[in-house]
Amino acid sequence: MLIFLTIVISLVFLVRSADIFVGQATSLAKKLKVNDFIIGFTVVAFGTSLPELISTLFSSLSGHNQLVMSNIIGSNITNLCLIFGLIALFNNYRIKKRDIDINIPLNMAALMAFWSLAAYMNFTLNWASGVSLILIFLILILLSKDYNHFTSEQKEFVTFKPFLLILSLILLVTSGKICIDQIITLANELHISESILGYFLLAIGTSLPELVTTWTAVKKNNGELGVGNILGSNLFNLLFVLGVSTFIRPIKLTGFINDLIFLTGATLAVYTFAVIGKKYSFSRKEGIGLLFIYLLFALYQISKNLL
User: Fold this and answer.
1) Spatial separation of the C-alpha atoms in residues 289 and 307, rounded to whole Å
2) What's the CATH number where 112 sits?
3) Domain membership of residue 105 as a residue range
4) Which distant-in-sequence residues (6+ apart) come within 8 Å of 59 by Cβ?
5) pTM of the model
6) pLDDT by residue (tens digit) across 229-281?
7) Which residue, 183, 251, 265, 282, has fewest beta-carbon neighbours within 10 Å?
8) Per the structure, how many domains does the chain have?
9) Which residue, 260, 234, 289, 212, is CA-closest to 78?
10) Dihedrals φ, ψ of 93, to 5°?
11) Does residue 33 come out as left (phi exceeding 0), alpha (psi in the -120 to 50 range) or beta?
């Protein structure tokens, strides 16, 4: 119980630190007159994905490949199915045509590039693969910037304070290290797979910033920022976070092929629901469909690791 409590507290610090960073970085970007989608696709996505980056790096440093991959895959599936699903369940979530034509397909393109690279490297990613993933990430960001030009009336809501930015980074590093160490300890104590804790406890915990940011954006009728946040976070996790992790040690994918197939299917499902949804929107019906997909993923992981 003490270990679990420590994990929860460290996750709270991770989320809170990311929230402070997002506020500061977004405030600075708004001063520079950067449009909302680019803020969502870069600054906010980076900020909300900081917990994944920090926890994944510490997992890689400690040699726990299961936590690295389960955190990345679990966070992306949580973003696509659980977050989009929950928001659509309570709000009519409008999807822009540019998201249908460009932004969601860019996520599919990232997955296809990832699959091609993984297959070419025999499903073991080294530092050279990491460089390739980061380059793909930068290319897709540039492509997104070229196709997204719109502004929003959202006002600056915090004052930029460099001290808070530095403090939040210190808290991120400290709480991230504590969180990963305690999750490894808990897995050993309970004699369960680390991936179970990675897929649910760690992935859901580190995805809370995405949920809060997207929910707030939708409630303020600023869905453009929300969509950019989710799509940008998933690209960041799959390409940048995983790419940086390979600089520490090679990442083996052989035990996660079915899970990556599930992530690919979830991305395709989001695209399909967005296309068939009334006037490019996620209604309650699409939300229930996405939550059902997440439930299937959870049942598959439980049956694979616990039964």
Assistant:
1) 26
2) 1.20.1420.30
3) 2-305
4) 65, 67, 68, 71, 180, 198, 245
5) 0.83
6) 787 788 889 999 999 999 999 999 998 999 999 999 999 988 888 777 666 67
7) 265
8) 1
9) 234
10) -95, 110
11) left
